Amino acid sequence: MVQISKKALFWGSLMGLAMMGTSCKTSSKVKKEEVVEYIDYELEPVEVTANRLDFDRAVYNPSYTRRNDLLHTDLEVRFDWNKKYLLGKAKLTIKPLFYPTDSLRLDAKGFDIQKVAILQGGQEKKLQYKYEDQKNLFIQLDRSYSREESYQILVEYTAKPDELPIGGSAAITADKGLYFINPDGKNPDKPQQIWTQGETESSSCWFPTIDRPNERTTQEIKITVQDRFQTLSNGLLISSRKNEDGSRTDHWKMEQNHAPYLFMMAIGEFARSTEEWNGKLLEYYVEAEYAEHAKAIFPQTPEMLSFFSARLGYDYPWPKYSQVVVRDYVSGAMENTTGVIFGEYMQKTSRELIDNTSNEGVVAHEMMHHWFGDLVTCESWANLPLNESFANYGEYLWFEHRYGRDFADYKRMNEVRGYMNQAVLQDDAHPLIHYGYEDKEDMFDAHSYNKGGAILHMLRKYLGDDAFFESLKHYLHKNEYSAAEADELRLAFEEVTGEDLNWFFNQWFYKAGHPKLNIKRSYSDSSKTLVVELEQTQDYSQSTVFILPMELAIYTPSAGDLPIIKQIRMDQQKQRFEFPLDEAPTWVAVDRERMLLAERAEEQSKEEWAAQYRLSARFQDRYDALQKIKYDQGEEKMRKLFWTALQDPAWPIRAMACDYVKAQSEEETKSLIAKLSKMAEEDPHSQVRMAALQQLGRIGDASILPTVKKIMANQEEAYSVIYGAFKAIQQIDQNLALELAKELEQEQNPTLLMGIAELYGQTGDRQYLPFFSKNWQKTENYGAISFFGQYQKLLVAIADDNLTLEKVKTLKEIGSNPKNDLWHRYAAANALYDLQKAYFEKAPYEEIQKALKTVIEKEENSNLKNLYQNWKVN
Ligand SMILES: [Zn+2]
Which stretches of 453-573 are assigned E, i.e. beta strand? Predict the structure, then answer.
């Protein structure tokens, strides 16, 4: 970053004057006296390099230089809840890393510092220090120390995370490291909690440290709280002591080295449950009303620990595994060593968690970090994919193990879409290992996670499972308890396999982008030749021409579903592969494993797409094929294919088939109804049961009502299925649906509330208005937006201007109250926006517009502000 100070500007114009030898507009304003005043200042060096201005050095964020090595961190902390302060005492054991030094720099953000001393033989000796920018604590040691000597520093301080100065970056307010929730206890709807969030460099908001990913320290923390609170921190609870003043001090100790950003504390009144795995303690902390669901909230924890230990050839290395849900968390979840913190979105009942794999994915992700991230840590934020790509791929590995390859591939498809969304739609592609980032927080994007996971999958498919996992084992053992760069990963793979992998790492880790692959297949009857033409059309000046080893599978009529497999290697921009073949193929699979991270463009006949569905074992092939032919069901062959797909082994495909399946004749319709009814009751996956019910609703035959009613009465059925059944009834018998809605309201389930809102929204009946005001706070995320959308529809349908004006006030209040969460604020604003369109040039229009303007003006969240800008409200 180039900072221009007033001083530099001044000298700039002065230099201009000297070079031109005459006066000009700007320099004529310079008075002689001012020159004399500034004459002692150093000349800014930028002036002498004017002749090299054509050289633009790329931004490079290096690993931090290490002067001192932090060995042990010993903290004592108490809290002033009212002021939101942490009162701390830190004893840090440190030694110079290599060069002798007589000084130490520590990260300490927004502290009041009471004392800095060196501890020698139990005695404190005060040290000189300078505390700069409320960020850097420079300490002058009593003498110079060599790398053979360690010393102990004492810092007594008050951390004031809520009073952190807002510096150049506004991000700092969301980076306060230590969070007090409902500190005065006045909010009846929220528990009182304190929790921390260290990544990236926010641990230094609550203790002085060397807050960098390439630093590691052992740790102990003595936390003093009122006796009613529980505490949780890294490592094991060594002792818990009641104090004379009624408070309690818990002593937590972590004997293995880990990075300061992985330190954690969580304090609150939690319901705690435990179990044991391999002699290690597993703990689950949730709010009291979710106590009985704790194991469902953190599903499969012991099984996952066993799975990852075995798959990675490295036993879970830490002394315990605790997981805690906190309120108002600033991230999704964080892999603090042995103490993972999750947001409250995880807290659901066992019934709400039927077939829910998102909790499972998050639990697997954070657990995988305990090897990739906590045991081996990225050396710099540019190398963050060494943490996140593996955690992302850990989800794939777990899903593949528990649910099979199809389901893991379905999740992967969504991961790849997330990456494409950033790289293609938002036109924001950068190398995976990205030394040129603007802000370290920008590293937490769809490259480090999604793309990295997809790249590891390709590497695994290229090397084979044995070589891939043996290499990971080697990498973990070689780099345990230390920081690593991507090259260390490459070397581990090379050492195990004996194969140079620079080509792979260069294109996937160090270059931006991905192949845009054109695929053409043709067969010549006269020469009996199959031709596969491949072309990479990405802008290779911004990316590269990728080397792509892959397999082709050639299916022929005479060999049926047994393909001929060919290995090919694409290493040119455009390449043609020819194969002698006696008969025209039924289908040719290009990239048989469907492992390439690429945008594919290919043309096939309907018959080829249908053959792709029938012949391929890969989820992505079958999914793509059905998408291609879903509107061709006028043809019986294609229709029958969809009927077959209703029995696909992968549930996402069965659900998709339910959504699109068609029947033509009366007889076909009858048999489809029978088929879907059976699926609605018997399919093993709730998403398929729901999709079958929704399709039955669209078909709209009243004969299904008894079945649907039976499903709705099942108290153990997943809420999504109840929703599907309720939607079916809405389409067949609205009066019955209105009757049932009254009962469903009692469930207070967000999915069902949505279904009810969709029904009430169409009625135009004002008796349903109170439902919306009573329940909007229970909706979440996108559900909130649709919920308010239905509210808006109902108002328009009632068409009472005075009523509308009254409710506009309510919407204004919800949309502009910063205490409401972001989704609800946006949902209310969005409803006003739609209402304004509906009332265009009608009486309440101006009032609606005014209300919307107020909401927009009061919004302070930058994401929402950006969204509102596109609305063009005048
Ligand atoms: Zn992660």
Answer: 482-484, 516-524, 529-536, 548-555, 564-570
694 close to 658: Cβ distance less than 8 angstroms: yes
What pLDDT digit, counting tens, does each position of 627-652 carry? 999 999 999 999 999 999 999 999 99
- Name 275's bridge partners: 282
DSSP 699-713: HT-GGGHHHHHHHHH
Helices 619-629, 405-420: inter-axial angle, 10-degree rounding: 70
**Measured between alpha carbons, how far is 17 from 308 in angstroms, rounded to an integer?**
69
**CA 413 to centroid of ligand 1, rounded, Å:** 19
Give the range with max mean pLDDT: 158-167, 669-678, 781-790.
669-678
Least confident stretch, 265-274, 606-615, 813-822: 813-822
Q: Is residue 71, in this structure, part of any structural domain at all?
A: no
Contacting residues for 120 by C-beta, under 8 A, at least 6 apart: 152
603 Cα to the center of ligand 1, angstroms: 38
CB 278 within 8 A of CB 268: no
Which amino acid is present at 835? L
Residue 347: helix, strand or coil by DSSP? Answer: coil
In this structure, are 487 and 520 located in the same domain? no
CA pair distance 754, 736, nearest whole angstrom: 17
Q: What is the Å distance from ligand 1's center to 24 Cα?
A: 58
Q: Which two tokens stand for residue 566?
A: 């060919």
Give the residue numbers spanning the domain of 29: 6-52
Q: What pLDDT does 601 receive?
A: 97
Residue 234 above 90 pLDDT? Answer: yes
Q: Which of 385, 370, 366 shows the shortest CA–CA distance to 446?
A: 385
Decide: 693 and 661 in contact? Cβ < 8 Å. Answer: no
Is residue 265 within 8 A of residue 194, CB to CB? The reply is yes
- Percent of residues, the chain, with pLDDT higher than 90: 88
Determine, yes or no, domain membership for 291: no
Shared-domain flag, residues 471 and 385: yes
Q: Which helix (H) or strand (E) holds 538?
A: none
Distance 369 CA to ligand 1 centre (A): 7
Q: How far is the CA of 201 from the centre of ligand 1 (A)?
A: 15
Q: Look up residue 785 and give its amino acid.
A: I
**pLDDT band, residue 16 (cuts 50/70/90):** very low
Dihedral in degrees, nearest 10, Cα atoms 760, 764, 768, 774: 80
- 528 and 587 in a single domain? The answer is yes
* pLDDT higher than threshold 50 for residue 20: no
b/e 293-314 (16+ beta carbons within 10 angstroms → b):
bbebbbbbbeebbebbbebbeb
